[in-house]
Design brief:
The chain has seven helices and twelve strands. The protein is α+β, with helices and mostly antiparallel strands and about 290 residues long. Helix 1 crosses helix 5 and helix 2 packs across helix 5.
Length: about 290
């Protein structure tokens, strides 16, 4: 399946029309013209491959902590909250999770904001600089997209810019090992689910395996496009838009070769109340969510 393609470098009116059509019909699109240097993307993939090649005991030294940062081992992540399909086995992936790097004297750490704090970094040359460079580049893309979406949804009260003044960011560096013959049919790389947040931006290699559920209910494989990002809407933005923008089920099926991807989740500050925007509610479209 070839997703709709949105060129962020195109005329703004054209970009807004593309966003409206893609996320009002499917909830997924391919984003080009995003401005993230190829070297920055290559750097984070090289860092991910180097990290996942480490001995298990070195990765477990930074196993996921209470602030949701660190290493998630293979076969321990099971989606218990999916509204799409009941998970019967863990996802067949391992990953490194990082979030916004918060200094000890930052406002959110001092206030005890949920998940605020520092990241866990492996002892691996060049890893942290490559990941932080990717963080910075993707935050820029995320802010641009939020600005576009605010215009699309007639956010006249400035709700979205305020919510993303200090965003919640998550970067998940995923590795899906190649399956053994004995377990090739066991489980998913990532079980069917909807994302709970606002915007997801995925960089992936050419291994394939990402599938999106069409409006007709069919699972369609997404064809990787070099240099592009796959963007989907999560449940928060679906709610903010009063159902106008779709949060679509997706999954990763296992393939004969290993797969790497970098999933960047751009969400509002943890204190944000998410409810339908005023510009998305009228007599014909009453609020569909609390």
């Amino acid at each position: 399946m070839n997703l709709p393609v949105i060129d962020l470098g195109a005329d703004r009116t054209e970009v807004l029309r593309g966003l409206d059509e893609a996320y009002g019909r499917l909830g997924f699109a391919t984003i080009v013209g995003h401005g993230v240097p190829e070297s920055t993307v290559a750097g984070v993939f090289a860092a991910s491959q180097a990290f996942h090649a480490l001995p298990l005991e070195r990765k477990l030294a930074i196993e996921l902590d209470e602030r949701h940062r660190g290493y998630i081992p293979l076969g321990v992540s099971t989606d218990r909250t999916s509204s799409v399909e009941e998970a019967t086995s863990p996802n067949q992936s391992e990953s490194f999770m990082s979030m916004r790097e918060d200094a000890p004297d930052s406002a959110d750490v001092v206030a005890g904001t949920y998940l605020a704090g520092p990241n866990q970094w492996p002892e691996l040359d060049g890893f942290r600089p490559a990941v932080e460079a990717y963080h910075r580049a993707m935050v820029g893309v995320g802010r641009h997209l939020v600005d576009l979406i605010a215009e699309l949804l007639d956010d006249r009260d400035g709700v979205l810019p305020r919510a993303f003044a200090t965003p919640t960011i998550w970067l998940r560096l995923l590795h899906y090992p190649a399956p053994d013959e004995a377990d090739a049919d066991v489980g998913y790389g990532s079980a069917p689910h909807r994302d709970f947040g606002c915007i997801t931006l995925l960089a992936q290699d050419d291994a394939g395996g990402l599938e999106v559920r069409s409006p007709d209910g069919d699972w369609l494989e997404v064809q990787p496009l070099p240099g592009a990002l796959v963007m989907n809407v999560g449940d928060m933005l679906h709610r903010w838009s009063n159902g106008r923008l779709l949060s679509t089920p997706h999954r990763v099926v296992r393939r004969p070769r290993e797969r790497y991807s970098a999933a960047f989740f751009f969400d509002p500050h943890m204190s944000t109340v998410v409810e339908p925007l005023a510009g998305c509610v009228d007599d014909e479209h009453p609020a569909a969510f609390e």
